[in-house]
Amino acid sequence: MAERRSSTSNRTRKSAAKVIEEHKQDDNTIGEKEVPFHRPPFHRAYAFGLVTGALFLFSWIGQFLTQLVVEHNDAQWQAFGLALFYFWGSSQSKEGDERLEQKIDLLLRDRGIDPAEL
Length: 118
Description:
- The protein is mainly alpha-helical.
- The chain has a domain at about 1-40.
- The chain is about 75% helix and about 5% strand.
- A hairpin with a 2-residue loop joins strand 1 and strand 2.
């Protein structure tokens, strides 16, 4: 049993020594051969940023187009409402017209002209 323990500890020592030796080697080497550092392609290195930026731009463009539609509809509604008020006229403008007409009739009568003839 003592032999088994010593053989297991020897294997552990050897494997630990091997791991330490591997870590001592430069990261750019595989065995004795040096391997140059390769950067990942741009789309892989910055994929998260590219996707996030694309989603932001799409949402921004969508918001802009939606705002254009809303403003267009508001402008149509406002034009319709103003045209309707212009057609109906307001109560204040009618009162003003009636008062003005009465004043003109009074001035015409003062000068001796019958307003019905005009």
